[in-house]
Each structure stands twice: as C-alpha cells, then as structure tokens.
Amino acid sequence: MTNAEAVPPVNLGEALKRARSLLTEDDVATLKSKSLPAAIWSLHLTLGHSLRRDLGLWSDDAITLFRDITEKMPEHPALDADSASSALIAALWNESQ
User: Fold this and answer.
1) Is 91 helix (H, G, I), strand (E, B) or coil?
2) Quick check: 54 pLDDT over 70?
C-alpha cells in the first residue's frame, strides 16, 4: 500500500497506536521537553506531515476519525487534516507528560 492509499484509522485509539509507531527519538524528546503549543508548532512539518500522509488524513474517508477526535478531544477539534494531526500531536504530548 502506498502512502496515497493509506486507509485512515476509524478512531482516536487506533490513530494513536499508529502514530506512536511513527515517532522518532527527536519527536519523543520534543514532546517531553516543550510546552504543548511549542510541541505542536515544532512538530507540524515533520511528525505532523507523517501523520497526515501515513494515516491518510487527507482522504475523504478520514471524516470518521475526525468526528471521533472531536468527540473525545473537544479542545482540539479535528476539522481537516492539519487540525487532526495537531490533535494527535496534542494527545501524544499528553501521554508523554
């Protein structure tokens, strides 16, 4: 399966499981050492891009995941691929604290 064909996860738990597998040592260090806003900003173009690509967040099929993220994390509504990847980074940040 190519990245363009990535099937989006259907819920936050599945998305986080897949997201954890994408974390580099640098990503983990950033999550542990920075504030939430700084971590989201720092990781948007690296980890965020990997999440958007490898989790199929640009796909129309990601709407089910967006709804689940928004329901479970109303402080980080997932309205599109960018906001969904930011919400996933926030969830990973929370796990790292």
Assistant:
1) helix
2) yes
